[in-house]
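[Meeting: bench + compute handoff]

Bench side (C.D.) handed over the final construct sequence. Compute side (W.E.) agreed to return the predicted structure before the next meeting so the bench team could plan truncations. Sequence as handed over:
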Amino acid sequence: MPAPGPRVLFVSFDFLLFIIPVLLLAWALAHVPALRTGLLIAASYFFYMAGPHTEPVQPPFYFVGLLLLSTVLDYVCSHRIAAERPRFAAGDAGARRRRNAWLAVSLVGNLGLLGYYKYTNFFLGAFADICGAIGLQVAVPYLELALPIGISFYTFQTLSYTIDVWRGRLTPEPSFAKFALFVVFFPQLVAGPIVRAHEFLPQLHRPPRLSAANMSQGMYRILLGVFKKAVLGDWIAANFTDAIFAAPDTYTSMEILLALYGFTLQLYADFSGYSDIAIGVALLLGYTLPENFDRPYQSRNLGEFWRRWHMTLSTWLRDYVFFPLGGSRGSPGRVYFNLWLTMFLVGMWHGASWNFIIYSNVHALAMVFNRWNRMRPRGPVTFGRSAPWVVGLGLLFAAVLGLGLQVLQLAWEPALGLAGFAVAMFLLVAWLPETGGRLNTALHVFLTFHFTVLSRVFFRADDLDISRKMIAGLLRFDEHLVRPGLLTPWLAAALIGGLAYHMTPKRWVDVVAFRVFRALPGVLIGLLFALLALGVHMLLSSGPRANIYFQF
């Protein structure tokens, strides 16, 4: 799944050669804002062009022009929108139309590029698949399109800026250079966090401060991120999960389940590790980026999970999709539709395939259930109130059975088992009180965590056929366990330790461990980084891997 052939990546010696001179020059120019901004823009464009390879086609270097195009497009559109503000405020209908037209230019330009590069082949293939399902054979072209690295991230970032100017919440940035740095700032350019203009642009108008607190916090976040990414992410993937996802029909049910646990940890470690390093590098440069993760696997329900996972994407879609649709206002049906569509788009943002269609709907419908379960009246189920339950459970059973038989191509027995399991989990979650003691909380966390684990089948599998084999393997319930040598003691320790670390109180890592780190002598901190670098080199003999989210 990770793209091969990385070049300048965070967890690489090449990045060390890149970041040291950038840091030294950036602080040497701290009192010359124009030159410092220009340096960071140049460094960001270099970092982008020297980034990882992607599959199936490597983007040509001139794709950097798309990044420049997005920058210029939203800079111009935002200024044209703002220029119409006085006439719009006076009630000029023409000004309203012109403002909306410039917003439309930004939306069509940004989303058009994103849709073309990311979804064209999927829509063409989906059209052919649907025609085939109704008996029509249609030949569609396959375009050799390279996905520009980071296009999903910087598109959302620039769009939010233009929309906020249109809403009157922002005044356009007068300096094109500062706006360009906001768009291309290299620590978060290719995989987030997604930064809002009001969070970052004001920092560019203040002199950067070199403080011991920021340096310590930055180094600590980098150390933590490298460990997550290299050990809990890449090492587990290279030595365990990749092999099972490549040929799931050759592994036992227990091995497939352990691979799902492994990928669940790997995905978190890979993405949150990248975010940690991005936040740390930004701190070393004197800037603050928003947090992107908050112990998501400790969530008690799926709504809480999405408030803790990739938080900058979740809040972006909340503010620019869910609220404009009406949010929680209106009839219950409309609110559920708003929630479903927003969560469906969250899933589809991650990728264009039938796997992600299923993944998106599974999470979107689970979010709808989560809201219904919170809002429904509690109390004994009377005869008059039992009919909706019977109908709802019947529909759930039929939907999951149809998914199992028609989409996953399971035999009747495992398909019935899958449908029965879905109904049983529905009833269990609905029966559990929303709040309660520690045991109640632990049950909610356990169920939410395992929902995310099982749904990762569709996130990780390369295609729908692999998903079918993974699920069929899980439902075999064969008596075989884990073959000797597949999961070594060190790998098992990393898997168990990584999941246990995630379940610890956040304060233990963010406050207590950081306090210990700050108390260490500088020489010992340097030795710690050297040992980590040596360990990464020994563990990852084939070199560092591109982050999973680079492909999104």
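W.E. noted at the follow-up: The chain has 22 helices and no strands. C.D. will use this when planning the next construct.
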